[in-house]
Amino acid sequence: MIGEQEVRIEGLREFRRSLRDIDRDTAKRLRVGFNSAAQIVASEAKRRVPLGPPRSGHVRSTIKAGSTQSAARVQGGGARYPYFGFLDFGGRVGPGNSVRRPFIRKGRYLWPSYLDKADVVREELAAQIARLARSAGLEVD
């Protein structure tokens, strides 16, 4: 997918396995930590997305952080606002592709928000993982 990037955490799989061996619920709390890091990007992206006509709502409200035990993501749009991709990346829409917006491969909102906050996101991920490890009784360097 365009604009998608992975931040790899070396040893995450083994860390999750260790947490699961200690306590299944502790491993599930990794998702909460990842959500915290993704929320940094979501908040920045919301700030950047322009407001549309208030009578039908705002695409800004669809930007959400989500995560699993192994991944965090930020996404926007959905069934009610299917044009989020057009706003972020550009392209052509409408009857006969009559509405044009310059295409920007890395997007205008989500990806630039991540790039501007990448250091903060990495620090938050590290802090959340260390906090979880300490709460599980593991030694943290």
Description:
- It is a single chain.
- This protein is mainly α.
- Helix content is 48%, strand content 10%.
- The protein has one domain (12-135).
- It has helices spanning 12-22, 24-28, 30-48, 84-89, 110-135; strands at 64-67, 72-75, 91-93, 99-101.
- The strands form 2 sheets. It has a two-stranded antiparallel ribbon.
- A hairpin with a 5-residue loop joins β3 and β4 (99-101).
- α3 (30-48) packs antiparallel against α5.
- The mean pLDDT is 84.
| Quaternary organisation | single chain
Q: Could you tell me the mean pLDDT?
A: 84
Largest sheet: 2 strands, antiparallel
What share of the residues lie within helices? 40-55%
Write the layout of secondary structure elements.
Elements: H1 12-22, H2 24-28, H3 30-48, E1 64-67, E2 72-75, H4 84-89, E3 91-93, E4 99-101, H5 110-135
Antiparallel strand pairs: 1-2, 3-4
How would you briefly describe this protein structure?
The longest helix has 26 residues, at 110-135.
Identify the notable features of this structure and list them briefly.
5 helices; two-stranded antiparallel sheet; elongated; 48% helix; mainly alpha; 4 strands; 141 residues
